[in-house]
Amino acid sequence: MISEGLLKMDSVSLVARLIQNTVILSTAVELGIRWRELAEKIGKLNSAQIANYEAPHKGKTGEINAQSMWKPAYDFLYTWSMRYGDSYKDMIQDLHLILDKMKNPVTRQWRQLTGALITVNCLDVLRASAYPKI
């Protein structure tokens, strides 16, 4: 497993960054068009700001098809996550809490985010097990 190898190489920050980026991408794909609701909740974005995130992803018709809606969602979530800097645990925790507060929360059926949150909270333990004391 890649993350195990990275932990053995003492690259915990890289493992954390990979998990964080995976969470951002997975959330964007999972939300799709519902990203607008999330943007209004966590970013306090208005319709003009949301349109700015969507503009680069519009097709020839001037619309974004449903399969491409993850792209502005990813752009927004990535930008939003930058405010956390290296605090990947806080970012994932806050995202999880906000998703739980949405109408029909995706976290009810989508357990991967909870798993990622548990994993990042256990990174220190995983790192210690990668370097067992003999």
Automatic annotation (TrEMBL):
GO cellular component: cytoplasm
Domain SH3BP4 C-terminal helical span(s) in chain numbering: 17-126
Entry-linked InterPro entries: SH3BP4_C
Name of this protein: SH3 domain-binding protein 4
Gene: sh3bp4_0
